[in-house]
Amino acid sequence: MTSRPLGALRVEKAGPLATLQDSGRFGVRRLGVTQGGPADLHAFAWANDLLGNAWQAAVLEVTLGGLILVAEQDTRLALCGADLSATLDGTPLSPWQAFTLPKGKALTFGTPVAGVRAYLAVSGGFNAEPVLGSLSCVTREGLGGHHGDGKPLATGDRLDVAREATSATGSHREVPPEERIDYRQPATLALMPGAQIADFSGESTFRAFHTDWTVDTRADRMGVRLAGPRLDCRLESMISEGIALGALQVPPDGQPIALLNDRQTIGGYPRLGTLTPMACSRLAQCQPGQQVRLRPVDVNRAQADYLSQFRRFWTAPASGQ
Predict the structure, then answer these.
(1) Mind listing the pLDDT tens digit for each residue in 160-180?
(2) Judging by beta carbons within 10 Å of its beta carbon (0-12, 13-18, 19+), is residue 188 exposed, middle or buried?
(3) pLDDT per residue as tens digits for the range 29-71
(4) Do 135 and 126 contact (CB within 8 A), yes or no?
(5) Side-chain-side CA neighbours of residue 143 (13 Å)
(6) SS3 string of the chain?
(7) 272-286: per-residue pLDDT in tens?
(8) Nearest to 289 by CA among 230, 221, 231, 213
(9) For residue 169, what pLDDT is reported?
(10) CA distances from 70 to 50, 79, 117, 155, 261 (A)
């Protein structure tokens, strides 16, 4: 994907956080390097699918809007995920569709209406040099992204696109209505119980699964804090362990933290268990103040649901998937 770039999208105005993300950086956690990748795997996958791209093709993750892109050539794009009040040359543009951005016209992201992160795919994928096998941008580690240094888009930057970007490949595809998630609705998050759950009090375990938790303002690509009743654990200390995507840690204040794509690779807080990938995707789209509920799920059921959901997209499995 890094050969023969042809044309570009020019960043006329940079928003709070817009980064390139492919399927993620795998096989390097032993080096202390986290995976990165799309916070919402569901929207990421559909954006690429609309254009007939490979599963792992790099897209632009736009957080909270504020971004303006101008096309330097007619460019075939797809937008999925959050409704960030996008407009195409001033005309409102809804997510979950493919479209063409004509040369010289602007794609503008405004303020969030529903959700937090929108995913913009280009036919053939965006071009950049991989770092440790991935284009995914992790700002905390200074890795990946359009310049390889882990920095988000800035005003004046230029995004190279592949030579297929002007084609109509995938224009006949559409996202089924049932796959277009309404991010304004309360979310139920599937959690695979495990890790140190037996060390929490019975009352705390009951509360964990019978409470409406509120998404805290302390939320980013590393993790999301949930506010609610205090959860008590009998463990006073523990040796740090490897941390998987979706790990639900409970620090001493008793308020759980769901760890997402840019999390640390090890941690020493007790965990109730692990959110499924789809649960992580849904949580990543929750705005502060929204309510979520945890639902226990068996690991075998969770694996079957994951394979059923994403098998359709796997034209060429990415490394580590």
Answers:
(1) 986 554 444 445 689 999 999
(2) exposed
(3) 889 999 999 999 999 999 999 999 998 899 999 999 999 999 9
(4) yes
(5) 20
(6) CCCCCCCEEEEEECCCEEEEECCCCCCCHHHCCCCCCCCCHHHHHHHHHHCCCCCCCCEEEEECCCCEEEECCCEEEEEEEEECCCEECCEECCCCEEEEECCCCEEECCCCCEEEEEEEEECCCECCCCECCECCCECCCCEECCCCECCCCCCCCEEEECCCCCCCCCCCCCCCHHHCCCCCCCEEEEEEECCCHHHECHHHHHHHHCCCEEEEEEECCCEEEEECCCCCECCCCCCCEECCCCEEECCCCCCCEEECCCCCCEECCCEEEEECHHHHHHHHCCCCCCEEEEEECCHHHHHHHHHHHHHHHCCCCCCCC
(7) 999 999 999 999 999
(8) 213
(9) 45
(10) 21, 15, 20, 11, 29
Q: The tokens of 211 are what? A: 């409470």
- CA–CA dist 246, 276 (Å, integer): 7
Task: Write out the two tokens for 30.
Answer: 């032993």
User: Which of 89, 101, 82, 83 lies closest to 44 in space, CA to CA?
Assistant: 82
Amino acid at 130: P
